[in-house]
Amino acid sequence: MSYLSNVLFAIVLIIGFGYFYSNVKKIIRNINLGVAVNRKDNAKARWRNMAMIALGQSKMVKRPVAGILHIIVYVGFVIINIELLEIIIDGLFGTHRIFAPLGVVYDFLIGSFEVLAFLVLFAVTVFLIRRNIVKLRRFIHADLKGWPKSDANYILYFEITLMTLFLLMNATDFHLQNVPGGFSHFIKAGSFPISQFIAPVFNRMSNELVMLLNEGFWWLHIVGILIFMNYLYFSKHLHILLAFPNTYFANLNPQGQFDNLASVTAEVKLMMDPNADPFAAAPVSENEAPSKFGASDVQDLNWVQLLNAYTCTECGRCTSSCPANQTGKKLSPRKIMMDTRDRLEEVGKNIDANKGVFVPDNKSLLNDYITPEELWACTSCNACVEECPVNISPLSIIMDMRRYLVMEQSAAPMPINAMMTNIENNGAPWQYSQQDRLNWKNEI
Amino acid sequence: MSENLIVPTMAEMLAQGKQPEVLFWVGCAGSFDDRAKKITKAFVRILNRANVSFAVLGTEESCTGDPAKRAGNEFLFQMQAMMNIEVLNAYEAKKIVTACPHCFNTLKNEYPELGGHYEVVHHTEFLKSLLDSGRLTIEGGQFKGKRITFHDPCYLGRANNVYEAPRDLIQKLDVELLEMKRSKANGLCCGAGGAQMFKDAEPGNKEINVERTEDALETKPDIIAAGCPFCNTMLTDGVKNKEREGDVKVMDIAELIANAQDL
């Protein structure tokens, strides 16, 4: 009978981690739908980026208020998870505060968890106020209607609940530790700088009731954490995991350097080769699918771009710094990332429903999610890339989709076509003869 | 009246068996745009004054392909790039200087993979090196005490992390250098990049160049300094839009230096 709760706990853990594992596998599968791109070079610079940007939050503090509050929640999250280890061991083996023999170290740990839990409560409250009362422009933006808006709030409510449960759990424990003569298995251990002030609430209750509450808080806390962990997959909160690989695999080249499409290089070299036979058929490889120039759907993007989409936190710093968006154009870099993730999820579900194969659904990222109007509004200024706290590049997706519009569909705006014709004919975007290039020398 | 600019071409240099210290890549705007031609000439005047051995490609130069690439036409870009690389490699070009951040970025970052390996510098970096090595000296002259703000071109700043060279040059003029609320890595685009220069803007409630000009005017400048022919055009239009062309000038850094020296 006494093992019942241990077995129940083990089952809850297995369900929680099992479901999480199956969703992680799905994310990896979906990201691998993307085109290959080598991001394994220069490991030293990549580790440094990850340490500075994901672990060190260096880009978060560019906006100090949000940055510092975020660091509190982040540190709180990481450190309080050490407590999770104790909870899991206690749960599986029926022990109570298994790490208590660590003595002073344990006091310090529990004390710092409590302080952090309190700070997290404070930070999250400010976040809720910023989102729902102060209504910062980037949080009430048209991109964030419906699910993305409620998702952000749910995460904050969740954190409030978890931190409150943690403090209540400690408060009941503290209360029972101080029952004269001792009570059940509640040994004196830990320090409770915050929850000691909550403990008096339980003064008039019977010890048995407080113990029941303690167990209730304990269970709710751990089950809450497992639910929260599994909520990640459906939420922008996935960034707490993916920020790390995302900063590691981010582009290391100068921001202005766009990739040169290798497939185009091969064709251009052939075109410019005086010895090439113009009538020769292109070499055909049997196993190769005909490649597209540029991207019209998520499978045409590379896997780093898809990882970017899953990592996006929808914070909107990109959109709030985008010159096109600031001047009222439709383009929103954040929406580009959200659309990419939504479409990728749709493609993933299609694959799940069709036994591992994607069945064309007459939809695509281009047009059904992202319109050419948005794409053509981009000045390629890299403000969005610079702003992103986790090194996402909405610009690279915009550029790949423009490439598709121009090279596959010849669907550039008229003046752009005129510009390109001029370059082709005159070697300049304007209609001047190349022979006149040096005329300025003799003009007044 | 011709100004007696000495502008040798690479072909002339080769005929004399000479290799210039640096190849000046003029760019399409610098060659054809009336406003940008003034920047080109100002830069040449400085090169002449500092006795820099340079040459241009002249009629052998062609668009780097930047606007085609940013518009999505990778074919056209690579055609342009490979043709230019053939010409540059034939002249064994080693070092290239250009007054256009778009040419600068493309030549520097996108040509190497296609076979074009050169040391590429922006004219502000080059001018800075002339000053540092004592080949050029400037004093404030007519700009002494003026309020000057510098607009960071995206393809010079964020794209390639060149922030200090233009500022150092401005400060050499004995002026008051003012920073806009959005500057350096946080700078706002002038609105011309990504081939936007060649088309109308998408529907919105404001033009980007007007938004940026407002940033600049907030610093109450006498002069808005730029380091890019496209930014120059966009900001000049912005100043006109605000009807401030009477008291605020938009000038390239090369022009500031050439004018300070009465070149």
Main traits of this protein?
A: 444 residues, mainly alpha, B: 263 residues, alpha/beta, four-stranded parallel sheet, 8 strands, globular
User: How many strand elements of chain B?
Assistant: 8
Instruction: Using a beta-carbon cutoff below 8 angstroms, give the protein chain pair with the largest interface and the number of residues from each chain.
Output: A-B, 69 and 75 residues
- What is the rounded Rg of chain B? 18 Å
Span between termini of chain A: 101 Å
Structural class of chain B: alpha/beta
Q: Which class do the helix and strand fractions of chain A yield?
A: mainly alpha
Shape category of chain B: globular
* Oligomeric category: heterodimer
Mean pLDDT of chain A: 94
Q: How much helicity do the residues of chain B have?
A: 40-55%
* Approximate strand percentage of chain B: 5-15%
Rg result of chain A: 28 Å
Average pLDDT for all residues of chain B: 96
Q: Which strand order does the major sheet of chain B show? A: 2-1-3-4
Tally the helices of chain B: what do you get? 11
Q: Summarize the amount of helix of chain A as a percent range.
A: 55-70%
- What string, H for helix and E for strand, traces the elements of chain B in order? HEHHEHHEHEHEHEHEHEH
Describe this structure in words.
The complex is a heterodimer of chains A (444) and B (263). Chain A has 444 residues and is mainly alpha-helical. Helices cover 59% and strands 0% of the residues of chain A. Chain A has helices spanning 4-31, 43-55, 64-93, 104-134, 147-177, 207-231, 239-248, 262-272, 303-311, 317-321, 323-326, 333-353, 365-368, 372-376, 383-387, 394-408, 414-426. In chain A, helix 9 packs across helix 12. Chain A is elongated and about 100 Å long. The model of chain A has no long low-confidence stretch (mean pLDDT 94). With 263 residues, chain B is of the alpha/beta class. Chain B has helices at residues 10-15, 27-32, 34-49, 66-71, 74-90, 101-110, 123-132, 164-172, 208-218, 229-241, 253-260; strands at residues 22-25, 54-55, 95-98, 119-122, 147-150, 176-178, 223-226, 249-252. Chain B has a 4-stranded parallel β-sheet with strand order 2-1-3-4. In chain B, strand 3 (95-98), helix 6 (101-110) and strand 4 form a beta-alpha-beta unit. The longest helix of chain B has 17 residues, at 74-90. The two termini of chain B are 16 Å apart. The model of chain B has no long low-confidence stretch (mean pLDDT 96).
